[in-house]
Amino acid sequence: MTHIHRTTARPYLGFGLGLRPAHYDTILNESPAVDWFEIISENYLVPGGKPLHYLDRIRARYPLAMHGVSLSIGSRDPLNKDYLRQLRALADRIEPAWISDHLCWTGVEGINAHDLLPLPYTEEAIKHVAARIGEVQDFLGRRFLIENVSSYLTYPESVMTEWEFLREISERADCLILLDINNIYVSSFNHEFNPSSYIEAIPIERVWQFHLAGHQNHGDYIIDTHDEPVIDPVWELYAEAVRRFGDVSTMIERDDNIPPLSELLDELQHARSTAFQAQREFTASADLS
């Protein structure tokens, strides 16, 4: 079995952005005040060319984290070892702070749905996913972060809440969690649950990263689109998460309708301000008690 490096202390990178090609030159020319960048792993699983050229130059200046969309950890298909080998090679090249992917399935029997599909919240699914995460961690030689996805349907087979499902998988697989605050809000709206219950149920020590993003509200339902600014209720939920989990590396995702980098830097500054205020409030309440 491969030795898995288990860091007991949670690293803190600060406030970051998703690395997008539209911003490559601005980043290199202006060295903006971003603490770190998260890359979409699949964009750099190539033998060479411009993506890796830019990635290497940006990596020389900023810490990076790797975030994937193709692992399909919940599928019945065998894990794609070629894909995992490419992930490991990229990690060896850029030395990311961590590697993450989603708690979902993206296809079955070789068919890719090109979507992050939710799982039924059952004991069978927990055993299946936890075992596969264990395989991934053994293969990569490091602990892995799993992210909660937004969802638009429920399964009649589910016997627990999503947060119970995520917590149980993280504990059985001994993996870490990328907690997407916007996804919690989106799913709480779509499925009519209290997002605070989700925040309160997740083990503090397992959360190593937060995602923030925008979405589209269609009245009766919300779709996680990453093409709009973060809205006030998500900022409020983020502040609640900071009060519970403390200093957690935070980044903003923007995948479509991408604005100039300056606009995202303003939004990132709002994340800093929100987090610092939440920490001050938590410290003050702790002192009073």
What does this structure look like?
The protein is α/β, with parallel strands linked by helices and 289 residues long. It has one domain: Divalent-metal-dependent TIM barrel enzymes (TIM Barrel). The chain is 42% helix and 17% strand. Strands 1-2-3-4-7-8-9-12 form an eight-stranded parallel β-barrel. α4 packs across α5, α5 packs parallel to α7 and α8 crosses α9. The termini are far apart. The mean pLDDT is 93.
Give keywords.
289 residues; 8-stranded parallel barrel; alpha/beta; TIM Barrel; 42% helix; two-stranded antiparallel ribbon
Short description:
This protein is α/β, with parallel strands linked by helices and 289 residues long. The protein has helices spanning 24-30, 50-59, 81-94, 123-140, 162-173, 181-191, 195-201, 232-245, 261-288, and strands at residues 15-18, 36-40, 64-67, 99-102, 105-108, 111-117, 145-147, 176-180, 207-212, 216-217, 222-223, 249-252.
Query: Please, what is the average pLDDT?
Result: 93
Number of domains: 1
SSE-based structural type: alpha/beta
The major beta sheet can be summarized as: 8 strands, parallel, barrel
Strand content: 15-25%
Poorly predicted regions are none
**Distance, first to last CA:** 47 Å
Query: How do the strands of the widest beta sheet line up side by side?
Result: 1-2-3-4-7-8-9-12
Outline the secondary-structure elements:
Layout: E1 15-18, H1 24-30, E2 36-40, H2 50-59, E3 64-67, H3 81-94, E4 99-102, E5 105-108, E6 111-117, H4 123-140, E7 145-147, H5 162-173, E8 176-180, H6 181-191, H7 195-201, E9 207-212, E10 216-217, E11 222-223, H8 232-245, E12 249-252, H9 261-288
